[in-house]
Amino acid sequence: MSAGRWLRAALGATLLGALLVPVPAANAGNDDEGEALLVAARTATSNETFAGVVEVRWRDDDGDLHVERVGARSLNGRFVVGVGDYQVVGRGFERVTTGAGEADAHWSAGAHHRAPRPGAAWQLDITGHHRIAGRRATEISARDAEGRVRARFYVDAAHDQLLGREVLDPDGRVARSVRFVKIVTGSLTPAVPGVPSDGSERAPRSVDDVSGGYVAPAVVGRGYRLLGRYEHDDGVVQLYYSDGLFSLSVFEQPGAVDWSALPRGESAHIGGLRARAFTTAVGTVVVWGDRDLVLTAVGDGPRDAVIGVVARLSGSPDQSDWFDDVVDFVLDPFSWF
Amino acid sequence: MSARRRSPVGAMDESLLSAYLDGELEARERAEVEARLAESHDLRAVLDEVRGARDAVRGLGPIDAPDTFWERVLRDDSAVVDLDAARATRRSRTRRWSALAGAAAAAIVVGVAVVPRPAQVHPPIAALTRAHAERASESNDPITNLAGVPVAEGEGR
Question: Could you state, in order of their start, the residue ranges of all structural domains in chain A?
Answer without folding.
Answer: 28-185, 204-336
